[in-house]
Amino acid sequence: MTNTQNTTKVITGKARASFVHLLEPDAFEGQDPKYSVMLLIPKTDKATLTKIKSAQKAAAEAGKSSKFNGKLPANLKTTLRDGDEEMDTEERPEFKGMMFINVSSKTKPGIVDAQLNEIMDASEIYSGMYVRASINFYAYNTAGNKGISAGLNNVQKVADGDFLGGRSKAEDDFDDWEDDSDDDEDLFD
């Protein structure tokens, strides 16, 4: 795998996946359905954040003539955001110390495990797992909004994590069941 200068493609380090829609496309009101995920990237992962910022610059330069009429806009929007500034970390502690970015694709991404085996079990894909992602940055100019966004290529699940959104694992909710009641006993007497 080569990493060239001025590339718009980034392979992230270990990030936490949130708002996971990798198996079935999802759509906000009035939008086309897309496969998507929000990546929570630790602020301490300077390597990934540097690669993202470099790819955003490369995408802006690539879009300068085709999207921005030869001049970079002063208010160029990007999708990389600060979790400590934009989220209530008391309510959503997973955003504390994180940068986050939303990435999506109209086509289904490839999803593999740490050993590069395709993940076939839908229960293995969830908000809270840890992943690496292949993403590609591009310039856009739509309805007066000008910026740099990111498309999702592929995902590698590298570790399990606690479910986000209040969901728990069934094995954590229950203990072994032994039916101690008498089968002939009527519970409603």
Automatic annotation (TrEMBL):
Transmembrane segments: none
Region (Disordered): 165-189
InterPro entries: Enc34_ssDNA-bd, NA-bd_OB-fold
Top-level taxon in the UniProt lineage: Bacteria
Extent of Acidic residues compositional bias: 172-189
Protein name per its UniProtKB record: Phage-associated protein
Organism: Secundilactobacillus kimchicus JCM 15530
